[in-house]
Design goal:
The protein is of the alpha/beta class. It has 20 helices and 13 strands. Strand 4 and strand 5 form a beta hairpin. The two termini are 26 Å apart.
Length: 482
């Protein structure tokens, strides 16, 4: 039934395109046979017909007049220091203005609350019409029939040729696509550091190895600076997203995690390479280079340690970098101009890519399958998600924040940005290599076990081998067996 309705929507759109082409052709062939006055009249008629055709096409594509429920986490507070959220909210406002007959009922929650609420709604089969789908939920929610298969819609999109198709990976189940990757393609693991503080400690740039970080920490402690690096794992997910998924890649390489995604049983969480990554995580968080309360404070708290000068560096995501930069630019321009960016230092026993950092679009805009029961409403929802992830959004974040989205923007002009913004752009998209964000894939139940155990590991209460065994068991029960 849903496939038939979807086919109807696509047929209407195709018919509208054909009619627009015919109208244009008729106007151009009529003009040569007319005298000057008749040509003017014909031109006016052609213009009117073209306008009417465009209006008819718009009406055919968006015949819906009613309500659409949209749920996301781009709060007004977050948009003040986050280019992706600002761009997202700006596009929403633009779309609302362009479609006055459609009411967007927005349910906007903070990120952590959003994750909890959307999972509750999915469990009750009560998802909103349009919502942000986290990559790790794709396969299970698709299997339950909760999210609409967007494969044909995406491939027929007028923007498809400009999409960075690598961003679709977290939203695939087999060869089917269930969301349009949304917001900005940014890192989850960037080291933001104060160049002057590290220069004072004897380093021209942030160290590329952890032994030098430990040496610098001795200097910082002796000079009243509490910590070398600030980190917050109070929400539990931060150690996974903002540390382990990059550090793990340094030990396992990219193919290992891809095998886990592909359900290739030759890769396991209990493999020696991953256990080594867990062991290093435990050791480095016990070394004293991080703030002692790393497991009780959030990344928002930790970045305030850095802003206040209580820590010489901070590890977090691109959203944290945006906030830090905006705050310092407003309140402490000297410290702002000393901002530097680095990848995680390489552990001594790691053998894989030392320049890797995890980057991607971990959320995508999805449509509730129930929407397909109303073809007009479905067409409006499709138009909405295509606009919110399309070239207008990418142009906006590129020009205003030097960030990238799903749609490619050629030749981003960085000349209007200062050296800090240019530096972060080049660090994000030019000078480093990429790996996957762990919790954009697999299943939430896997990461729930992993994230809980990581806190115990970092506190010294669990061994690396026991954590690996727990995660492998959760993987086999909740992902491999489905």
């Amino acid at each position: 039934m849903n496939k038939k309705l979807l086919a109807s929507v696509l047929s209407v759109a195709m018919a509208a395109s054909v009619l627009a082409g015919c109208g244009s052709g008729t106007a151009s062939t009529a003009a040569p046979a007319a005298d000057t006055a008749e040509e003017d009249a014909a031109d006016e008629t052609a213009d009117e017909e073209e306008t009417q055709t465009e209006e008819a096409e718009d009406a055919a594509a968006l015949a819906y007049a009613g309500e659409i429920n949209l749920m996301h986490y781009s709060t007004s507070e977050e948009s003040e220091g986050n280019g992706g959220s600002d761009g997202f909210r700006t596009m929403i406002a633009n779309w609302e203005e362009a479609h006055p007959d459609i009411t967007l009922n927005q349910n906007v929650l903070a990120n952590d609350e959003y994750k909890t609420q959307i999972a509750t709604m999915a469990a009750a089969d009560d998802l909103p019409d349009v919502f942000l789908l986290q990559g790790m939920n794709t396969k299970s929610w698709a299997a339950q029939g909760l999210v609409l298969d967007l494969t044909d819609i995406i491939k027929e999109s007028p923007y498809y040729a400009d999409y960075n198709t690598s961003y679709f990976t977290p939203f695939l189940d087999g060869d089917k696509i269930y969301a349009l990757p949304a917001l900005t393609g940014g890192t989850c693991t960037v080291v933001v550091y104060d160049k002057q503080m590290w220069a004072d400690a004897g380093f021209d740039s942030f160290p590329d190895n952890w032994e030098d970080v430990k040496k610098a920490n001795e200097y910082f402690e002796a000079n009243g600076i509490e910590d070398a690096i600030a980190f917050g794992n109070g929400g539990q997910w931060q150690a996974n997203s903002c540390f382990l998924s990059t550090l793990g890649n340094r030990y396992t390489g990219k193919e290992w995690f891809q095998k886990l995604i592909d359900k290739d049983t030759s890769a396991k969480f209990t493999d020696e390479s991953f256990v080594k990554a867990l062991q290093f995580t435990q050791d480095i968080f016990a070394s004293g280079v991080f703030n002692e309360d790393f497991n009780t404070i959030t990344n928002e708290d930790a970045r305030e340690y850095f802003i206040a000068g209580d820590a010489a560096a901070f590890i977090g995501g691109n959203w944290d970098e945006s906030y830090i930069a905006a705050t310092l630019l407003a309140d402490d321009e000297e410290k702002y101009n000393n901002l530097g960016f680095a990848v995680l230092p390489q552990p001594a026993d790691a053998t894989e890519d030392p320049l890797s950092q995890n980057i991607g679009l971990g959320y995508g805009l999805a449509i509730n399958t129930k929407v397909a029961e109303d073809p007009d409403k479905l067409a409006a929802c499709i138009d909405l998600i295509e606009y919110l992830t399309g070239p207008d959004f990418s142009d906006y974040v590129a020009k205003n924040y030097a960030l990238g989205g799903l749609t490619k923007v050629e030749d981003v002009d960085l000349s209007s940005f200062d050296s800090v913004v240019q530096s972060f752009y080049n660090w994000s998209y030019v000078d480093t290599t990429t790996c996957e964000i762990y919790d954009s894939y697999l299943d939430p139940a896997v990461w729930s076990v992993c994230n809980t155990d990581l806190q115990s590991l970092m506190n010294g209460d669990m061994s690396a081998a026991d954590v690996a065994a727990d995660v492998q068991k959760a993987y086999e029960e909740n992902y491999l067996g489905k």
